[in-house]
Design goal:
Largest sheet: 8 strands, mixed
Helix content: under 10%
Structural class: mainly beta
Shape: globular
Number of strands: 23
Order of helices and strands: EHEEEEEEEEEEEEEEEEHEEEEEE
Radius of gyration: 28 Å
Strand content: 25-35%
Number of helices: 2
Oligomer: single chain
Strand order of the largest sheet: 8-10-13-16-18-22-21-20
Distance between the termini: 89 Å
Length: about 300
């Protein structure tokens, strides 16, 4: 007998504890992005030329609802005018909303005289995941003719392609990262093209641009910065198919060209080192030749090179 009075043959039945189990599903998969079309952009290349635009001040936009959209998804459409249109806030697939998978939603937007028009369609599922549709970067100008175009922002997902002609793309914004980190998001196209940065405090990477023979960092007091990236990035920015062989960088002592992987080393992240060579004068501007491996950049004397 133990202290509790139990006989040897007796036993206490173990208590069975109640257990509960709950499985959680983690949903981080973005829904399919809607398809966005600006109807005046006849060739759907993201550039609204003067010929396509004509005298129009407005254009219809089509948003195609993804075919795999489900009840509970929300579609939000935003334009540069920040006019927000919410389609079926509670459930886009309710019959009373008239919105079904594959349906095309049409509405009208005002066209800017020049620069950018951003139309973004966003599908948000019940888990809060976003599927962001095409952004249109719309510019006034005639493809095939020389043009000067001013713009003040280019965000993630947007692209610019100037097409044929000796074009000037003038960035007037300040304190921004031009290009948003999108590979070759800004393309000059065929011809002798210039990317001018007339705003201040901006940064630009050569991995964001393609087919610009001249990059002008401007003469603003605050200055602008060009990051070369790797030697491979420099090569990829040059449109050899159309005869481009190098890039000329203009600016002054307030501007910086960073050849050293975002640091004052003159060596990129792959170990390629840039060295300064002979000076060269082009159209009254004196450039220093900077070479790494088999690639040369020409940087105007006076620019801070690190």
């Amino acid at each position: 007998m133990d202290l509790a009075g139990n006989q040897a043959a007796d036993y206490i039945k173990p208590t069975v504890l109640a257990e509960s189990e709950r499985k959680f599903t983690i949903d981080t998969i973005a829904p399919t992005a809607p398809v966005v079309k600006l109807l005046l952009d006849a060739d759907n290349d993201g550039i609204l030329t003067a010929k396509e635009k004509g005298t129009a001040t407005k254009s219809k936009v089509e948003i195609e609802v993804p075919k795999d959209a489900v009840a509970g998804d929300v579609i939000v459409v935003v334009t540069t005018q920040q006019v927000r249109q919410v389609m079926g806030l509670l459930a886009i697939l309710l019959a009373k909303n008239g919105v079904t998978p594959g349906k095309v939603i049409t509405f009208e937007v005002d066209l800017p005289k020049e620069g950018t028009l951003n139309v973004q369609a966003d599908v948000i599922d019940v888990a809060g995941n976003h599927g962001i549709g095409n952004d249109f970067f719309v510019m006034e100008g005639s493809s095939g003719a020389s043009q000067t175009i001013n713009f003040d922002n280019i965000g993630n997902g947007q692209t610019v392609n100037l097409g044929t002609g000796d074009d000037v793309l003038n960035f007037t914004g300040s304190n921004q990262t031009i290009g948003g980190g999108n590979t070759h998001s800004i393309s000059g196209g065929a011809g002798h093209d210039t990317l001018m940065v007339s705003g201040t405090g901006n940064s630009l990477s050569l991995s964001d641009v393609f087919s610009f023979e001249t990059i002008d960092l401007g003469d603003a007091v605050a200055g602008n910065t060009l990051f070369s990236g790797t030697v491979a990035d420099v090569k990829a920015a040059i449109d050899k198919q159309n005869g481009q062989s190098t890039i000329y960088v203009k600016g002054d002592a307030n501007d910086t060209v960073d050849l050293g992987a975002k640091g004052a080393s003159l060596t990129d992240q792959n170990g390629a080192t840039w060295t300064k060579g002979a000076a060269k004068e082009v159209d009254g501007v004196v450039y220093d030749a900077w070479t790494a491996e088999d690639q040369t950049l020409y940087i105007e004397q006076g620019i801070n090179v690190i």
